[in-house]
Automatic annotation (TrEMBL):
Pathway: Cofactor biosynthesis; riboflavin biosynthesis; 5-amino-6-(D-ribitylamino)uracil from GTP: step 3/4; Cofactor biosynthesis; riboflavin biosynthesis; 5-amino-6-(D-ribitylamino)uracil from GTP: step 2/4. In the N-terminal section; belongs to the cytidine and deoxycytidylate deaminase family. In the C-terminal section; belongs to the HTP reductase family. The keyword Iron does not apply. Keywords: Hydrolase, Metal-binding, Multifunctional enzyme, NADP, Oxidoreductase, Riboflavin biosynthesis, Zinc. This is Riboflavin biosynthesis protein RibD. It catalyses: 5-amino-6-(5-phospho-D-ribitylamino)uracil + NADP(+) = 5-amino-6-(5-phospho-D-ribosylamino)uracil + NADPH + H(+); 2,5-diamino-6-hydroxy-4-(5-phosphoribosylamino)-pyrimidine + H2O + H(+) = 5-amino-6-(5-phospho-D-ribosylamino)uracil + NH4(+). It comes from Thalassococcus lentus. Residues 1-109 form the CMP/dCMP-type deaminase domain. It comes from the Bacteria. Its EC number is 3.5.4.26, 1.1.1.193. The keyword Zinc applies. Coiled coil: none annotated. Its cofactor is Zn(2+).
Length: 362
């Protein structure tokens, strides 16, 4: 199952809105087939592994990182494919919470005489599928927030100099995080100030994440990196209802997808943004700021995982803070996370934090 999970992770960021599933088929102690969900979500992991196994799938055990699907969509049910191939046993950690499946895949297998074992490495599988489950159950994608700051929580000097606070190894790690998410999200201020590309570079990635910008008025540079590449790599802009028709038309002609969202307190509502991204099929979103967008997501309790890259320098109170105003007056109002990991990254340190996990029934 650990091998199947590692295979499934190859699909993270590439197979939305489907879950990134891995499958390993074992016959008499020998791996005879392997597969993972392919880009775009088709084909699923099970038929890929079954095709590799061929006739050796008969009488074999299939280790699958999520309950095999039981519904007819663009492809036949994977449960049917496993039965037709003659697999004698299926081991899966979790039930699929998608109501089209939700136990039906396991029931189909058992009705055909296939032995089913569940609960194996369930916690690891729940982590890998957290974005898929969150979208199915709450309508929004998993949100990972990245912050890169000095020791005293600053992202720029008093004059605005910010490149680079953290080192090249941290920046490479950020590209790795981008690659495992469906989309990269920034605020309009960051898009205007930094003119970012928001692409994964130097990692051999063929499929780039969607670039998402939150900008109430769509007042983004029409000659910037995002505008110039919008027809080649998707750009989605979440804007307010008061964005001008002229700006909307200009960005549509550039190839961007426009997503109108309601306002909250004069800003685009972060909860509405995530719901809209979930409706569009995204399961994992990686937010890289800026400070105001990060603060609004934290204040709305929408951050599921936090990656803080800290450099060994101090910039002082006159520097630009890494987070905008949160409106916290009492400690019990502050967003809180539990530590997951602490990783040295060259001269920097990467802290990983996550909100309290919930046990999932298998």
């Amino acid at each position: 199952m650990a091998h199947a999970l590692s295979l499934g992770r190859r699909g993270l960021g590439r197979c939305w809105p489907n879950p990134a599933v891995g499958c390993v088929i074992v016959n008499q102690g020998r791996v005879v087939g392997r597969g993972w969900t392919q880009p775009g979500g088709r084909p699923h992991a099970e038929p890929v592994a079954l095709a590799a196994a061929g006739t050796l799938a008969r009488g074999a055990t299939a280790y699958v990182t999520l309950e095999p699907c039981a519904h007819h969509g663009q492809t036949p049910p994977c449960a049917e494919a496993l039965i037709a191939a003659g697999v004698s046993r299926v081991v899966a950690p979790l039930t699929d919470s998608d109501p089209r499946v939700a136990g039906k895949g396991f029931a189909m297998l058992r009705a055909a005489g296939v032995e089913v074992t569940t609960g194996v490495l369930a916690d690891q599988a729940a982590d890998d599928h957290a974005g898929f489950f969150l979208r199915v159950e709450q309508g929004r994608p998993w949100l990972t927030l990245k912050l890169a700051m000095s020791l005293d929580g600053r992202i720029a000097t008093a004059t605005g100099e910010s490149q680079w606070i953290t080192g090249p190894r941290s920046r490479r790690a950020v590209h790795g995080l981008r690659a495992t998410h469906d989309a990269v999200l920034v605020g309009g201020g960051t898009a205007r100030a930094d003119d970012p590309s928001l692409t994964v570079r130097d990692l051999g990635v063929a499929q780039q994440p969607v670039r998402v910008v939150v900008s109430r008025f769509l007042d983004l540079p029409l000659m910037g990196n995002l505008a110039r590449t919008a027809k080649d790599i998707p750009v989605w802009i979440c804007h307010g209802p008061d964005a001008s028709d002229q700006s909307q038309q200009a960005w549509k002609e550039l190839g961007a997808r426009l997503i109108p969202c309601q306002l909250d307190g004069g800003r685009v509502d972060p909860a509405a943004v995530l719901q809209a991204l979930g409706e569009a099929g995204l399961t994992r979103v990686f937010c890289e700021g800026g400070g105001q967008l990060a603060a609004s997501l934290l204040a709305a309790d929408l951050v599921d995982e936090l990656h803080v890259f800290t450099a060994g320098m101090a910039l002082g109170a006159e520097g630009h803070p890494g987070l905008g105003a949160l409106g916290v007056e009492h400690l019990n109002e502050a967003p809180r996370f539990e530590p997951v990991d602490l990783i040295p990254v060259g001269p920097d340190v990467r802290h990983v934090w996550r909100r309290v996990s919930q046990n999932r029934l298998v």
